[in-house]
Amino acid sequence: MKLYKAIVATALAAASSIAVPVLGQAPAHAASGVGVIANLWSWNWNSVARECTEVLGPAGYGAVQVSPPHDSMTKGGTVWWDIYQPARYELTSKFGDEAAFRRMVAACNGAGVKVQVDAVINHMTGQGATSYGGYGFSKYNYPGLYSSQDFHQPTCQINQGDYRNDAWRVQNCELVSLSDLNTGSEYVRGKIADYLNKLTSLGVSGFRIDAAKHIHPGDLSAIKSRLVGSPYIHQEVIQGDQEAVQPSHYTGVGDVDEFVYGRKLREQFTGQIKNLRTFGESWGLSVPGDKAVVFVDNHDTERGGSTLTYKNGDTYKLANLFMLAWPFGTPQVYASYTWNNSEAGPPSANGGHATDVNCSNGQWTCFNRQVAGMVGFHNAVKGTGVANWTDNGNNLIAFSRGDKGWVAINNEGGSITRTFTTGLPAGTYPNVAGGGTVTVDSGGRATVTVPGKSAVAVHTGSTPQPGDKEATVYYRTGWATANIHYGINGTWTTAPGLPMETACAGWKKKTINLANATTLKAAFNNGSGTWDNNNGNDYTLATGTSTVKDGVVTPNAADPCGS
Length: 563
What we know:
alpha/beta, eight-stranded parallel barrel, 31 strands, 20% helix, 25% strand, disordered N terminus, GH13_cat_dom
């Protein structure tokens, strides 16, 4: 909503800096039951439906969080925050109508992905007179729904000092001039519950409660008591140092969005990640792991400067990989659109309605795809603890999750080769954080090269199967070293990719496990900034043996080294 970024930035800046605990402390356990949440923020319903079917379900995501589906005041697509100013509870939003919403929910549920809705129930609008659905309203009058008596009266505005000094004003006055619903009213509670119950009747499984900090937890409990079934609830309650309203006040209602988590990861991934050995609640996180929804960033924090964002490139990806590998909270992966103006809304047409997501035009991050392999890792290691921690005293860390998975994260600029204790049974495992394979010996050890700003992660249940497909690529070059940077089903290795071995004079070689895929996209580089990307088109390579020479791909080729 408008100025929400200012509220977030202020609250996070107020949180005190916590010293890193003594190494050796056991990490907190993760939450269970929900699975990894993909937060597809500002994606329209058609795009969410397609992503659930083609990406989220196959990757093992447990849920998708979608943007508010209610009818809202409209700014014609120019801003992102109009969707956080509800005009009525009809499902005629900038992301599609009710029919499209129903189709999306059905498609996601059919793919095994539960749907969570971002529910805005603290307030209505602060400006405007017309909604995306063509509905007319004013700030305290919503014909057929609410009138002035349904808002906190007399009106008051939340002042900055109220956050530390006056919980009543934080929960009863207006947040950035948005008309504050009287959630203590039985009528208002009934209307909110009717809206949420309609969504669950359509197949929605849970809710993210927007601005929960500004609703008394007793009011939220009363609304929750009116809900049909047991929808999953997590609440936006931003922790501020010594504030009167704290996230811990809301754990009796449901889980809580853990905002301190992303700020702490930013500190470490722009410093030394060796400290993450003890990462958990003792670092000053606001709620225990079994009550926390954790994320590297979301739509508010990426605009507030307190967390890493997609603009941080590989560092951002590594922080997300760590989140999916580490046992704390229910992880949420954020994917939205690219922006330069922090106020700007998503790509839109026809009066501000969000257009279909295109993951190849540079307008959308589609980041959920970049870490899809680690979702399987997270699922495979559920319930295990951290063991076999290794670090280099700086920005390389590695650890196992029981005997189910092992990960190494290299936040340094250059490649590092080591022999690691993985804790895994002997075998050959595909690297789900990038590409290639890792061979573990009978003692659980593996010698692994981790490229700079990259990661290697393997887990049980992911060993190459007899039916898996492979592509062996020979690349003709005069470079002393060569890397192959490739993507399978839209998920790419981190640049510069993986090192290729010397096959014979003039030829480099790499064998890649494709699982069920039949092709991959690839480009080559010398590790020092010189690239061969087929004039910007990348190379398309198929299963079997292929050669790439002078810009020409030869499929089903003979071994050019004659071996």
